[in-house]
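Full entry
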Amino acid sequence: MNKRADTRALGLPEIAEARITFVVPALGAGGTEHVVNLVANHWSSIGYTVTLITLEPPGAQPYYKFHPKIAIVRLGVPPRRASKMRSGFLVFQRFLRLRTAIHRSRPDLVLSFLTRTNVLTLVATIGLSVPVIVSERNNPALQPLGPFWRCLQRCVYPRAFGLVTMTQGALDHFPARIRRRGRVIANPVDLPNGWQKRRGRNILAAVGRLTRQKGFDLLLEAFSKISKSHPKWKLVIWGEGDERRSLEALRDALGLQERVEMPGLTPRPGLWIENADVFVLSSRYEGWGNVLLEAMAAGLPVVSYECDWGPGVMITHGSDGILVPTEDVEALAKALDRVLADRELREQLGARAVASAQRYMPEQILIEWDALASSALMHSLKMRLQATDKSG
């Protein structure tokens, strides 16, 4: 099937050399970056010209592998801590570079990810005749944003052609005039090719950025309460972030130096899946929880806080996983104690988790992204035709 037939079969409009530009802060390891990788590679493979614009330094390398036809433009203005005056200058610099880069990519559609980048993209595209879709990837009610960005968000989000969230709860956070343009598209689960089960090492795995949001401090406290009851088990926390030192200090204070490992990022995506025997999500809040879904798809028994949003959508408590009240250390400890002690329970939860995760296979989720692209590209085509009629 040729490119044109491919796009017709998917319901996407025939726009000659249709161009889609993604804007994302960085292309490191993370759930957002994983989704950008999957969707961008898919659209490139069916014949669209895809450009990725990031705020990263020129020499940054992506964690995930992108299709060779995809152009990656790095603006060299990554987020950084600075004084208020310096921060204002950096925001203005990002705005100028982003507007120039978007203009040069000549897009028919712009797709932006993460709140501050969404705001910046909507401001940078003022006056450009191109639909912009913004995607919220976290809990919009709880993520720290600041009054400046919050005010800008309220002002410019109504300009967006569409808003994508991963749960209905996240979409309901926004005013009705924005919700009317919203779509809920869950994250797909995309396990690494060729991964192998290497179970049986008694590893309780947790994965995520080392930030307060991920609640690894709560997890360390919970594990300390049950570690003596399960001497053969160890906790491995995969990830990197600003709270590494404080988490290591807490681990040591709890006497868990020999029982808890924090090896940083996995050398390749999804490596943690191979070695884990149980997975735990201890987040205070989430936009979705990619790693939880990956664990379920890999047949791991999972224990998770029922935080907003994501885990309660993926897990049916007691059937394909265990849910406990958010930030309840005692409840988390009891749930982990139960799962680590019962091999038969682990096998039952893992088998059911695999079946539940089938709802989120990439083929299903990409159909929804294709439908959204179809709507936006048709709108872009209409705007072009109207502009041509006026100039004629």
DSSP finds 15 helices and 13 strands in the chain. The CA atoms of residues 322 and 355 lie 16 Å apart. Residues 362-391 form the longest helix (30 residues). Confidence is low (pLDDT under 50) at residues 1-13.
